[in-house]
Design a protein that fits this description.
about 350 residues, 10 helices, about 10% strand, globular, binds S-adenosylmethionine
Length: about 350
């Protein structure tokens, strides 16, 4: 069975995921030769693209994300094997602690070796992310540590270990949606939906360059306009004054303002089409930029500690640079209606 290009989805939920606005963004970016997504997360915009650009580069500072996409592209079967596991509270705590212990080394190995990836970390990470409720998965900000093979609470070292939550026992999301079909099957039965899904993603990602580091590293001339007309989607963590501050494992105050500055500085370049995501009032852009409002589902963000998800879902905006394609107001209304009717 072949999956249509735009039907591909990440196998995990992600705070601030842009799948609902991806089609609208592509209407404005149009056919670009080169595509860069410096805040990759669940890759919703790349996966929503109706076509594959000559060059595509994605990046995220979170090593677990970069490792997952790298590992999936290279070894979908191994990642599926590790991700294929039922919901189990003890496994969740133990694997969480195991992953957190590897966090720093993972980051440096990804940065040091362009081919490095760890399929076990990728599979366990995505499995746990889909069992986990709310923020904090693999953030490394919790009081639980492994001492002599036992998970113990050490409040004096809170902030360096793992945290614990009851696993997600309701409607299943991400890889766990597939659990009824899973098991360690052999031979023809190994053609499982999960494996098919991962292989379809691997095929899509085969030529995508995955980077792990600060966003600014993939926005110099060589990964952008040197390669021709470039579409850039900037979806940084929104300003911390407007959302929960524990959504992402990597985050920084003032980041969204720096990203805005970069966008304004490069917005007039005719070889750039830039989309900048944020909340209403977050970015004051030059009058040559246009802005579109859209409504997020608010579902996953609702689980955030601040509980601001639903209110914020009405404040979503995307600003488009002057060289993005214009669409007629009527068409724009239709696109927005289509987004809303999906809700
Ligand atoms: C709003 S999310 C992106 C969501 C993504 N567009 C999607 O559809 O799933 C922001 C992402 O930026 C990443 N991030 C945070 N600080 C970063 C930085 N300095 N450089 C690169 N990525 C960063 C986070 O790990 C997170 O995945």
């Amino acid at each position: 069975m072949t999956t249509k290009l735009t039907e591909l989805r990440a196998p995990f939920p992600w705070f601030g995921g842009k799948s609902r606005v991806a089609a609208l963004i592509w209407e404005r970016l149009g056919e670009v030769k080169n595509y860069v997504e410096p805040f990759a997360g669940s890759l919703a915009v790349l996966l929503g693209s109706p076509r594959v650009a000559n060059a595509e580069t994605v990046n995220d500072l979170d090593g677990f994300i970069a490792n997952f996409w790298r590992a999936l592209a290279q070894h979908p079967e191994e990642v599926a094997e590790y991700a294929d596991w039922p919901v189990n509270e003890n496994d969740l705590s133990a694997r969480h602690a195991w992953l957190v212990q590897r966090r720093e080394e993972l980051q440096s190995r990804l940065e040091g070796d362009p081919e490095f990836c760890d399929t076990k970390i990728a599979g366990w990470w995505v499995w746990g992310l889909c069992c986990w409720i709310g923020s904090g998965w693999c953030s490394g900000k919790g009081p639980w540590h492994v001492v002599d093979g036992k998970l113990v609470r050490e409040p004096q070292h809170a902030g360096t270990g793992s945290n614990r939550v009851l696993p997600h026992l309701g409607r299943r999301r991400g890889v766990n949606r597939q659990l009824p079909h899973l098991g360690r099957r052999r031979g023809v039965n190994r053609q499982l939906p999960l494996l098919e899904w991962f292989e379809a993603l691997a095929t899509r990602l085969r030529r995508v360059r995955v980077c792990c580091g600060d966003w600014s590293r993939v926005l110099g001339p060589s990964p952008t306009t040197t390669l021709g007309l470039t579409g850039v989607v900037l979806d940084p963590p929104y300003d911390t004054s407007m959302r929960c501050d524990s959504c992402y494992s990597v985050d920084a105050q003032g980041l969204s303002a720096k990203v805005r500055e970069w966008a304004i500085e490069h917005g007039d370049d005719p070889k750039m089409r830039i989309a900048l995501c944020g909340y209403e009032g977050e970015h004051e852009m030059p009058s040559t930029w246009s802005v579109v409002s859209w409504k997020a589902l608010g579902g996953y963000s609702n689980r955030s500690a601040s509980g601001r998800g639903r209110a914020n879902s009405f404040k979503e905006r995307v600003w488009f640079s002057p060289h993005c394609l214009k669409i007629h107001v009527q068409e724009q209304e239709q696109v927005e209606e289509a987004q809303l009717s999906c809700l």
